[in-house]
Amino acid sequence: MRTQVAIIGGGPAGLLLSHLLHLQGIDSVVLESRDRDYVEHRQRAGMLEQGTTDALRDSGVGERLDREGLVHHGLELRFGGAGHRIPLTGLTGRTVTVYAQTEIVKDLVARRLADGGDIRFEAEVVDLDASAPRVTYRGGGETRTLDCDYIAGCDGFHGVSRPAVPGLRTFSRDYPFAWLGILAGVRPSTEELIYASHDRGFALHSLRSPTVSRLYLQVPPDEDIAAWPDARIWDELAARFATGDGWKLHEGPVTDKAITPMRSFVAEPMRHDRLFLAGDAGHIVPPTGAKGLNLAVSDVIILARALTERYATGSETLLDGYSDACLRRVWRAEHFSYWMTTLLHVDPAATAFERRLQRAHLDYVASSEAAATSLAENYVGLPIE
Ligand code: APR
Ligand code: PHB
């Protein structure tokens, strides 16, 4: 069996890459270890930069996104019992869109299948050869090989692609906290997202639709979810979001509950021979600011352009520049996610001095147009080169 590009992983990165290549007449096969239902229902951050929305729309998969996505023009920083609005659009001329990753994955799977695309679910890659190049996968009780021109490693943080890059240099930071996230069947208590910094810890009020709220609480990194019955979650959220003006948090049935660790991670380079890493396979950001999906999208846009050039002209110039081009953007987002995380969370080891500095920084971002603009331009996303 043979294809032009073997794509390992059917998350947002692998699926979008397959779609972008198809638009350029390039064949691919997506090998995904999980089943379709699993990848279509995995809960992740759902905030799209304008560049991500544009890319989905321009490639013809934005129809439902345009109908159901919620366009946001600002966000709220809440601390000291009061809210401070950051007018994202006023400061940058750009917007962000709330649209769940589950829906992006559903749209991409549907589109690939409608276009005759080859997505193999429950096909786990067990070996790859970046020089042949070739991937070996297991599915339906059999082991098969797929020969190709290039391999795209879009298999997330725990995949097999990254370990196949020899001489990799990695950079990482683990944070002394995690996020407990819930989905709740209740009308959001806010129109714009609220990022709350409180002495009890960070909280985020996001949303999924006019009837579904998405909320997060900072918890200790090794926290047992059993310690968080629904009533405790609502009490804690109410305490961290409390303001002096009678603002009320709407409570409702919790339909999903999970704890996510917080990590920053970058692997360099993102290429070895004919293997290219993209998305979470190459880098992880903490979820504050929701850069993960947006980085996965910019990686595969850069990779699709490079492969298009290669097949159209034979030139490998863009492929040779792939890792550097991605890493410039990755490191900017790494810094922003780290910055926003440390600005808003309570580090249990922080000294009183450090807590006062953090508060001074929050006051500065909330009161200085220059500081707020810096947050805003990173939040709405810097242009893809
Ligand atoms: N063989 C085949 N598929 C694999 C293998 C393997 N050996 N290992 C992992 N996979 C699959 C996983 O099951 C998963 O569906 O690769 C896919 C990787 O998808 P994601 O984890 O969603 O990663 P990515 O597509 O890069 O998307 C990045 O995900 O974690 C979030 O916040 C992050 O939004 C960002 C997005
Ligand atoms: C989300 O809606 O899941 C979300 C939004 C913004 C973030 C993180 C997560 O910064």
Structure overview:
Strand 9 and strand 10 form a beta hairpin. The longest helix is centred in the C-terminal third of the chain and has 28 residues. The strands form four sheets. The chain has an eight-stranded mixed beta sheet with strand order 6-5-14-15-16-13-17-20. It has a six-stranded mixed beta sheet with strand order 8-2-1-12-19-18, with helices on one face. It has a three-stranded antiparallel beta sheet with strand order 3-7-4. Helix 1 packs parallel to helix 6, helix 1 runs parallel beside helix 8 and helix 8 packs antiparallel against helix 9. It is 37% helix and 29% strand. The protein contains eleven helices and 20 strands. The protein is globular. The model has no long low-confidence stretch (mean pLDDT 97). It has two domains: 224 residues, FAD/NAD(P)-binding domain, CATH 3.50.50.60; 121 residues, 2-Layer Sandwich (D-Amino Acid Oxidase, Chain A, domain 2), CATH 3.30.9.10. P-hydroxybenzoic acid (PHB) binds next to loops. Adenosine-5-diphosphoribose binds next to helix 1, strand 9 and helix 8. Keywords: FAD, Flavoprotein, Monooxygenase, Oxidoreductase. It comes from Actinomadura soli.
